[in-house]
Amino acid sequence: MAVKDDQFRPVGRLVRYRLLTPWVALNQTTGSRYRFLNNMERLTFLNRLLGQNIVFLSREMGMEIEDKIFTKVNLTSMFPKPVDERNWGAFSGEFRTNFLLPNYMGIGNGITRGYGAIYGMFNPHSVQFDQKIIDENGKIEKAYPKVKVKTHAADILNEI
Question: The whole model's pTM is what?
């Protein structure tokens, strides 16, 4: 198995990612706070949560981030879709960040159940999925991209 040192790091520009499966951003605690915010506050809150998700993942990978993480969510709705018996709140859409993340990595809550899978939108038409392999909750059961996926950060950044 090859180790890629250049796939998980801060970069000098914003990179666009699509949420392939719902991002479960809100748990019981954060969901209670979210309900009492206005729309501008909700957007700020979700951007902060996404940044915290990235910092958490970097720490799990043994990496301390010294640079500021910038995030900008672009969601299909500001109303979370209830997920699971825990009544977590999930969102669909995309986001931008100044951090290079591996494709198909999960972000947020429920990543072991397939939630929060992302794909870098360096070329938005480079990945397509057969709808039959995505279940009714938007979880990917099997994902087979129909094109080659870039694996080196230098190749990806050249396309941005």
Answer: 0.73
